[in-house]
Automatic annotation (TrEMBL):
Residues 118-531 form the AMP-dependent synthetase/ligase domain. The keyword Secreted does not apply. Residues 586-664 form the AMP-binding enzyme C-terminal domain. It comes from the Eukaryota. It catalyses: acetate + ATP + CoA = acetyl-CoA + AMP + diphosphate. Residues 1-32 are annotated as: Disordered. Residues 1-18 have a biased composition (Polar residues). Gene3D superfamilies: 3.30.300.30, N-terminal domain of ligase-like. Belongs to the ATP-dependent AMP-binding enzyme family. This is Acetyl-coenzyme A synthetase. It comes from Orchesella dallaii. Its EC number is 6.2.1.1. Residues 49-110 form the Acetyl-coenzyme A synthetase N-terminal domain.
Length: 703
């Protein structure tokens, strides 16, 4: 059953195909928030949500000022500066978004020092659960503050200053948030690259951000496998050198040798990390590379925070762009901090003492906002998990839930779908009674997966928050609140405080009431991106040009009769594989690097577990034959250029591609071929209609 209407639009030629909308039966299936949750929630009813929402729109200053009162600002904003200052309309001048400009703060101070001062020094900030179930550690707010100060001092001694970019390529270990907050403490801008990206992808991002420091680890355990991150880093650094970027320092966490060694020593009550004999020799360049633990040993554990402007950059994070070149999404300090903190508090209804677990990797925005910044801003206790849901067994997620008595659990639809495959027993054999709230993020969740999550994982007593947002939005923008919003499986429901979603027609007209269109936002909220690093023009063209006066998400959405919003998916040349956004151009440019390929076109096809998967068409140069060996080489090429998660599902030979007379590839036709649908609609604009038959003849039987 489709999640909802499938709006496939090709923005360049202006065609929109609207398939069926959410089934009526689905629209009317409503799950009320459980009374148990509503009773103690911050927001207890839909009426209460609506009143708060109204205030956040009619008087944003009053709304956010109440929240700001809890946070530390070294200097308040002066009265002559506007609270919110923005322009979304390119015709009126450059697009700009400023919030609380002139106020001075530091996010690491607010996450750590402020919480320690409040008496949370001995509260656990992070439980760390290793890939191996016997490998674990934990860190209190007091300890984390010291580690962050030490690392900030390490960065200072290496010459890192405010405004410098620092690249981070690390696994899910506590040293990762320490590195992030160490940067933030001195006003350096972190640029984290997900550990699943290839050396080429890492290098491209380092070159774009001009980072002369890289923080990595020797490697990471993923189930039975070890991934040698330092070796990949070395390849990336060499590539940076070719582009005249001198990477002066590479800080390496010695993580691999710590397999299953970490037990608390009863006499000292400490958990020393004993470095076990381990026969892998990490490649090490004595002048450039430094062991993290050696640098930290000598560092002072006090570091005065750098008081930065509310609008000074905090971090950049690359996301796929439709031209194929990733965009460095830039977030600034105060707006991101307050938005991450507020969404975390309300959407997960985090209450003091709760244990929260987000399974996302910190290398993606979900990990930035909902593993590091949001939880720590609230003094929360969370779990950081190195491993995978399938190791050592398919019960691992629920084992970890039981081990730490997790109350809020946040994961992606792709993980849910891949676990569903193994049946209910792996879930049922675990207790899970600690769970209160379940969350999902990253792609539309199909009702079947929603219902399994709700009934099997949550025993039909935990509300599900289906949180819609983007790297660009900084935090949740359309989401239920667990104690307030009756949910409908597959709908992200209503806007968060301060967010004004609008559906637009092709012509840019606002759709009132029920309907389907392009999802845009009419007003800024504190946590939205401010620019594309080093390319403000690209920021404007990507997000503000199509519909002047609005931020365009790139997604389509539908509003039903009750006002619920249903995200229908991307309407641009982007696809979402297991919750990871990829652009078709990025994949095509990887394929074309192979000497056999003359031309390529990648499209999305629905996939049972991944949500979407890549179906690629390749036209070969003269003298090359299509074979399973070539297919393997092409898949490898994509893995090398982008990362393993981007590997195409199907590659088919295309003797020719379907093109319009002006030479544009008609992807609409390719999408139909990918799913085996021969209802091609109007094909009269094709330069050569016989191409379709040729493509059908070459469609692999396995596709
Ligand atoms: C999709 C991830 C439907 C959407 C936080 C968006 C979703 C893109 C949802 C951003 C959801 C994310 N329902 N679709 N709950 N959450 N998306 O930047 O297409 O990695 O534009 O941020 O994921 O992906 P990104």
């Amino acid at each position: 059953m489709p999640v909802s209407g499938n709006l496939q639009a090709n923005m360049s030629n202006g065609t929109v195909e609207v398939n069926s909308g959410p089934e009526k039966e689905q629209e009317s299936q409503v799950f009320e928030p459980p009374a148990e949750i509503s009773k103690n929630a911050y927001v207890k009813s839909l009426d209460e949500y609506q009143a708060m929402y109204k205030k956040s729109i009619s008087d944003p200053e009053e709304f956010w000022k109440d929240i700001l009162a809890d946070y530390h600002f070294e200097e308040k904003q002066s009265d002559d500066k506007p609270f919110f200052n923005y322009n979304f309309d390119m015709n009126q001048g450059p697009v700009s978004i400023k919030w609380l400009e002139g106020a001075k703060t530091n996010i690491s101070y607010n996450l750590l020092d402020r919480n320690v001062k409040k008496g949370l020094g001995d509260t656990i900030a992070f439980y760390w659960e290793g890939n191996d179930p016997k490998d674990e550690s934990k860190m209190t707010y007091g300890e984390l503050l010291k580690e962050v100060c030490k690392f900030a001092n390490v960065l200072k001694t290496l010459g890192v200053k405010k405004g410098d970019r620092v690249a981070i390529y690390m696994p899910m270990i506590i040293e990762l948030p320490i590195a992030m907050l160490g940067c933030a403490r001195i006003g350096a801008i972190h640029s984290i690259v997900f550990g699943g990206f290839s050396a080429d992808s890492l290098a491209d991002r380092m070159i774009d951000a001009q980072t002369s420091v890289l923080i990595t680890s020797d490697g990471v355990w993923r189930g039975e496998k070890i991934i040698h991150l330092k070796e990949i880093s070395d390849k990336a650094i060499a590539k940076c050198g070719d582009a005249n970027l001198d990477v002066k320092h590479c800080i390496v966490v010695n993580h691999l040798p710590r397999l299953a060694v970490n037990k608390v020593d009863e006499s000292t009550n400490q958990s020393p990390v004993k470095r076990k004999q381990f026969d892998y020799l990490t490649p090490f360049d004595e002048t450039r590379d430094k062991w993290y633990h050696e640098l930290m040993e000598k560092a002072d554990d006090v570091c005065t925070p750098e008081w930065v402007d509310a609008e000074d950059p905090l971090f950049m994070l690359y996301t796929s762009g439709s031209t194929g070149k990733p965009k460095g999404v830039l977030h600034t300090t105060a707006g991101y901090m307050i938005y991450a903190a507020t969404t975390f508090k309300y959407v997960f209804d985090y209450q003091p003492g709760d244990i929260y677990w987000c399974t996302a990797d910190i290398g993606w925005i979900t990990g930035h906002t909902y593993v590091t910044y949001g939880p720590l801003a609230n003094g929360a206790t969370s779990v950081i998990f190195e491993g995978t849901p399938f190791y050592p067994t398919n019960s691992r997620f629920w084992d970890v839930v039981d081990k730490y008595k997790v109350n809020q659990f946040y994961t992606a639809p792709t993980a849910i779908r891949s676990l569903m495959k193994f049946g209910d027993s792996f879930v049922k054999e675990c207790n899970r009674s600690s769970l209160k709230i379940l969350g999902t993020v990253g792609e539309p969740i199909n009702p079947e997966a929603w219902l399994w999550y709700y009934n099997v994982v949550g025993d039909a007593r935990c509300p599900i928050v289906d949180t819609y947002w983007q790297t660009e939005t900084g935090g949740h923008v359309i989401t239920p609140l667990p104690g307030a919003t009756p949910s409908k499986p597959g709908s992200a429901t209503f806007p968060f405080f301060g967010v004004v979603p609008v559906l637009l027609t092709e012509e840019g007209k606002e759709i009132e009431g029920p309907g389907e269109g392009y999802l845009v936002f009419k007003k800024p909220w504190p946590g939205m991106m401010r620019t594309v690093y080093g390319d403000h023009d690209r920021f404007e063209t990507t997000y503000f040009k199509r519909f002047p006066g609005y931020y365009f998400t790139g997604d389509g959405a539908k509003r039903d009769n009750d006002g619920y919003i249903w995200i229908t998916g991307r309407v641009d040349d982007m696809l979402n594989v297991s919750g990871h956004l990829l652009s078709t151009a990025q994949v095509e440019s990887a394929l074309i690097e192979h000497k056999a390929v003359a031309e390529s076109a990648a499209v999305a096809m629905p996939h049972k577990v991944k949500g979407e998967a890549l179906y690629c068409f390749v036209t070969l140069r003269d003298g090359f034959e299509f074979s399973s060996q070539l297919e393997g080489e092409l898949k490898l090429k994509v893995r090398e250029k982008i990362g393993a998660f981007a590997a195409p599902e199907v590659i088919q030979l295309a003797p020719a591609l379907p093109k319009t007379r002006s030479g544009k590839i008609m992807r609409r036709i390719l999408r139909k071929i990918a799913v085996g649908d021969s209802n091609f609609g109007d094909t009269s604009t094709l330069a050569d209609e016989s191409v379709i038959d040729l493509l059908l003849q070459h469609r692999p039987e396995t596709a």
